[in-house]
Structure to design on (318 residues):
């Protein structure tokens, strides 16, 4: 069985970091000021005090990351009181179940279109525009990202119009404050092997980038292909390639193009062996995401004869 060394892991992580840093020099977000949306601070929704020191990174974030919150189960209560309840629910879950010092995300967006501050000090630091609060919402990349939880589960249903409109406004403001190009608006699955932010919302990220670019007054260039997410039950060319790569790495899986139990077990073993952080999305509570093969796993198995960008482009083909 293959041994995944620390150099390989660092190479996988540094790829995203370097790409993001490059994007920071090409934002061109020097147009008219973007109005700050209404953001309700932690003091308004009854947040618990943080259980530890809030870390403030002495640099701007590279990426804005979109999540779906999954819990509490969504309903048609679009009120401000519901938004405050969701914020308290998520904080309790993150502190009491995950053992984190506070809410993992910097901001929360409700189905009614109300935005709240998640982790303490996130709003204060965002207004400064030069640093950002470190969250706990993207495994292995929390020093690079600012994350937004969107209330609801968006694997098969679309987001409400109010949530979408507030998401556009919030992301545009964050992008303006930090000089982040729309191309660096990402989904959680672009970093970790998770369904988050749900297939439906993930499919709308190009639309989100375009909408944010319109607010910022900048052209949006085409984003590079991302690593695909493979799940048990998937079939086809990409699964067959993944199986071939896993076999080359020493795992005894078939190459039938069917993501079955043996392939799932091989991916799970590889993740454990490599010491990859488990994704921090509560989507795993709705659907077991053990053995998903996504953005943090592909770099461990693809051959080294091609660049990351080349492999992503190849795997983007069905």
């Amino acid at each position: 069985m293959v041994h995944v060394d620390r150099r390989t892991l660092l190479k996988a992580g540094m790829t995203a970091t370097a790409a993001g840093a490059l994007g920071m020099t090409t934002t061109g977000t020097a147009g008219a000021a973007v109005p700050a949306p209404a953001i309700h601070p932690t003091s308004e929704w009854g947040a618990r005090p943080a259980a530890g020191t809030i870390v403030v990174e002495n640099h701007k974030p590279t990426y804005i990351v979109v999540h779906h919150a999954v819990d509490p189960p969504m309903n048609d209560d679009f009120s401000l009181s519901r938004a405050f309840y969701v914020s308290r629910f998520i904080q309790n879950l993150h502190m009491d179940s995950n053992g984190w010092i506070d809410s993992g995300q910097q901001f929360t967006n409700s189905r009614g279109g109300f935005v709240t501050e998640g982790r303490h000090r996130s709003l204060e630091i965002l207004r400064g525009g030069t640093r950002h609060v470190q969250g706990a919402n993207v495994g292995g990349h929390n020093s690079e990202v600012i994350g937004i939880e969107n209330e609801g589960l968006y694997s098969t249903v679309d987001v409400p119009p109010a949530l979408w409109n507030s998401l556009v406004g919030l992301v545009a403001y964050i992008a303006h404050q930090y000089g982040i190009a729309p191309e660096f608006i990402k989904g959680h699955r672009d970093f970790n092997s998770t369904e988050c932010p749900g297939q439906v919302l993930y499919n709308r990220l190009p639309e989100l980038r375009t909408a944010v670019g319109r607010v910022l007054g900048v052209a949006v260039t085409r984003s590079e292909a991302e690593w695909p997410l493979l799940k048990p039950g998937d079939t086809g060319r990409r699964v067959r390639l993944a199986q071939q790569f896993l076999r080359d790495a020493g795992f005894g899986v078939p190459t039938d193009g069917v993501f079955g139990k043996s392939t799932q077990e091989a991916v799970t073993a590889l993740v454990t062996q490599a010491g990859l952080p488990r994704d921090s999305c509560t989507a795993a509570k709705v659907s077991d995401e053990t053995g998903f093969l996504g953005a943090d796993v592909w770099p461990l198995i693809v051959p080294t004869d091609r660049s990351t960008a080349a492999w992503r482009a190849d795997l983007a083909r069905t």
About this structure: Residues 23 and 128 are 21 Å apart (CA to CA).
